[in-house]
Write a structure and sequence with these properties.
It is built from 15 helices and 23 strands. By secondary structure, the protein is of the alpha/beta class. Keywords: Membrane, Monooxygenase, Oxidoreductase, Transmembrane, Transmembrane helix.
């Protein structure tokens, strides 16, 4: 007679039922592993981190094809998502748009597009990226995971986690005044900022080593004024734009921070203001001191931009954060791992969150499915190092943009470094179908390529030196550094950055 199988033993337990945890769980379950998801709440629920990118689409499409995730296939493009699954709310994202309000005269719409920057990420709405309405999308990913055989423990608290031996974990759960015990060989922490397993293991925090320092206040609004209408009222030359301004991740830039504006097809808009905390000496973040309503009330241009907008009934409140950044000293051990957004987070400025999360799922699924025994710890160690290196790369790409809030020419130039790195990764991923020739998965944003890291590190070092010397005292100082950025990124510049036919208007940057 075969031995009795323990119904509460799983090959993998995933802590956290967001889209990334659910995606990893469904992949493992479809390949025959016993997987459970544990989450302290249930769906639907409010979440941000809503803006995808070409990298996110490429990565998700790669996983859909590799693991036959047909239920997710329409979500890799705006056109197919809208046509096949209109019940899942999303928005169209053709690219990134930036409007500069930080000068003495505020935003000026001129023929030279001095205060505007639009960078396309797709050639049409049909193949565009998407803004994810996370309440719908996360719930859908979770439902698909359950249909794939994943056991779900929702509205469930983790009372304790005991590491009995290598590949031997015991989790004590509580739900509805009852308790349950799960055992597993491997745990994945997908709890994001809650860092449930990382805190239990006492993993040190290295946040203070990061350059970026920001906080945010945000929510969802209904009846936000049309951005195109506002631009027309300012006399903007919208015929030069590579896409309709609303079909993008919209950034309104100020000297002390920036506001995001992400529109969804149901008329709802995600709005948030991110404060630069680099000069804040107060014990509380600026976001904790002034919520979004206060920020809007004290800035006439934001009242213009939002018009008669009203706070959406869901979530029905405004959120305020402490410092956004976090970085763990390690992202994996021999029998556990944290997804990238749990191991660390930098800032929403470049919309890297969704893609980085999917990249982590891609790598962990390959490790857990293809390797065991002596080889797995080495791969997990490499995964940990890679995730931390990627977060530090994002930190540098974001930090320089915050320095650039003092002068839009500097912001625009530093953002070109991000677009050079992002398009380098997108083209390399497309050319290699996500896997390098030696079988290793390439690093997110090409963070494992020496050319990329050398370029970013050189420019970051120079900018830090200039900031410490307060060297940006004249237009000539800014122009000289902009020229240096242009020269340094030239080996990565495959899409005509710095040389658009129309100033600050980029019509073609995406890998097809």
């Amino acid at each position: 007679m075969p031995p009795t199988r323990n119904p509460n033993h799983y090959d993998v337990v995933v802590l956290g039922a967001g889209f990334a945890g659910s995606l990893l769980a469904m992949i493992l379950a479809k390949q025959g592993m016993r997987v459970a998801i544990v989450d302290r709440s249930e769906h639907p629920r409010f979440a941000i981190g809503e803006s995808s990118t070409p990298a996110a689409d490429f990565l998700l499409e790669h996983l859909v094809q590799r693991y036959q995730l047909d239920e997710l296939r329409p979500l890799t493009r705006f056109g197919s998502w809208r046509d096949s699954m209109p019940e899942l709310v999303c928005g169209c994202k053709r690219g990134f748009s930036y409007f500069w309000h930080g000068g003495d005269d505020g935003f000026v719409a001129g023929d030279d597009h001095r205060d505007e920057l639009l960078v396309s990420a797709s050639e049409s709405r049909e193949v565009a990226d998407t803004q994810w309405y996370r309440a719908d999308v996360d719930a859908y990913f979770f439902d698909v995971a359950r249909k794939c055989g994943v056991s779900a423990w929702v509205n469930t608290s983790v009372k304790s986690i005991d590491h009995l031996a290598d590949q031997d974990w015991r989790l004590c759960l509580t739900k509805d005044r009852g308790s349950e015990t799960l055992t597993t060989s491997f745990i994945v922490d997908a709890t994001g900022g809650n860092r449930l397993l990382l805190r239990e293991l006492g993993v040190p925090n290295e946040t203070e080593s990061l350059l970026t320092h920001s906080s945010a206040t945000f929510s969802h609004f209904d009846d936000v004024r049309s951005l195109s209408d506002w631009l027309d009222s300012r006399g903007a030359k919208r015929n030069d734009y590579p896409f309709v301004a609303e079909d993008s991740a919209v950034h309104h830039l100020f000297a002390d921070g920036w506001m995001w504006n992400l529109g969804f097809e149901n008329g709802r808009t995600s709005v948030g203001f991110v404060f630069d905390e680099s000069q804040n000496t107060h014990s509380h973040t600026r976001a904790k001191q002034r919520d979004l309503n206060a920020v809007i009330a004290e800035r006439p241009v934001l009242r213009e931009l939002l018009g008669d907008a009203r706070l959406a009934s869901f979530p029905g409140r405004v959120f305020q954060t402490d410092r956004l950044q976090r970085l763990a000293s390690v992202a994996a051990g021999s029998d556990w791992a944290a997804l990238p957004f749990t191991a660390g987070f930098i800032d929403p400025l470049h919309s890297t969150g969704i893609a980085h999360s999917i990249s982590g799922v891609q790598r962990l699924s390959q490790i857990l499915l293809a390797e065991s025994g002596a080889t797995r710890p080495e791969s997990l160690h490499a995964y940990s190092d890679a995730v931390r290196s990627e977060l530090r790369l994002i930190d540098k790409l974001v930090w320089g943009c915050y320095v650039g809030l003092r002068d839009f020419r500097l912001f625009t130039a530093w953002s070109m470094i991000y677009f050079a790195v992002a398009t380098t990764f997108e083209h390399a991923f497309h050319d290699n179908q996500g896997d390098a020739s030696d079988g290793n998965i390439m690093g997110f944003l090409a963070a494992d390529q020496r050319l990329v890291t050398n370029c970013v590190n050189e420019l970051t070092g120079e900018l830090r030196s200039l900031v410490e010397r307060d060297a940006f005292e004249s237009d000539g100082d800014v122009d000289a550094f902009v020229a240096q950025i242009r020269r340094t990124i030239s080996p990565l510049n495959r899409v005509g950055l710095f040389t658009p036919p129309i100033a600050n208007m980029y019509h073609r940057t995406a890998a097809k």
